[in-house]
Amino acid sequence: MASQNRYPAAASVAAARKGAEPSGGAARGPVGKRLQQELMTLMMSGDKGISAFPESDNLFKWVGTIHGAAGTVYEDLRYKLSLEFPSGYPYNAPTVKSALYDVRTILLSIQSLLGEPNIDSPLNTHAAELWKNPTAFKKYLQETYSKQVSGQDP
Question: What domain of life does the UniProt record list for this protein's source (predicted)?
Fold first, then answer.
């Protein structure tokens, strides 16, 4: 990707401090602060095999890299992703583009998340709390699902 520079971490730290957004102005309030925080957390995490940095000085467009895990068929493979964060992030999901994903992979990933959600970092904190009580969670799920199917706001 031409917009990636040689030292993406250095450029990314500068972008995070600057609070850059697509228009080049100040970060969009809480969303910009959230992205700055997530960038710093990611950079300091030491997680092996994943990285992401803002593209150029745009805090709302990132380039991510996933390295295949050792001992798997993906070992020694590297996948690049383009992430675009909307002004409503984290309540509105980012757009992710990658040749890695096809329709089947996307659907299987969602199915996997439904079976094993990450309750340590939930989008819906109420549902995450209920997950600990399967009976209460199922009741909440059925109510929410029924409202969505009937066209009502959940």
Answer: Eukaryota
